[in-house]
Amino acid sequence: MGLVGCADVSEQDSAQGSEDGVQNTAASSSSLTSSSDLTPRTPGKSSVVFSADAVINADIELVWAILTDLPGYKDWNPWVVQAEGDLTPGGHATVQVKLNGSVQKAEHIVLVVDEPNTFCWKDAGWNALFQYGQRCRWLTAQADGTVKFHQEVLLDGPLSHIAALFYGKALQDGINSETAALKARAEAEVTP
To answer: The whole model's pTM is what?
Structure first.
């Protein structure tokens, strides 16, 4: 099952999540779009959001380069162990992701590539017929030269809570490990 969350940056900054990074949303209004649209969804009544954050001591362009070098994922990413594709809006990306102890193929459609700040995709595999899954990553350059990195996995639709029951821990563990590995990789490439 390929599962990949995205909110408007202003909503993202004001979102309140639990300590483990999981957020069940109960917003009264939702700006959900059709599955053929390239606009990322915002959380709605039936959404479940998993998130991870890090402050990375590296230049934003370096972090962006690592994050968008899909073939390079195999060298540093413990969750997405292989990736390839076209990182342009509407492009397709294929990844091999570790979920619940096994490696699974996941197909995605790229939604947003706004260098060097935002990168989002949504699920495009068979599971997208039953469950909307989306993942967004945001990078924000800080005044002290660090990068604030935030990523979210959004599950949406009537089956989102069931999908979260079966895959939630694996998704949270995955984005946590990927976030830590991205930080380690970028900081290791910075010359003192």
So the answer is: 0.81
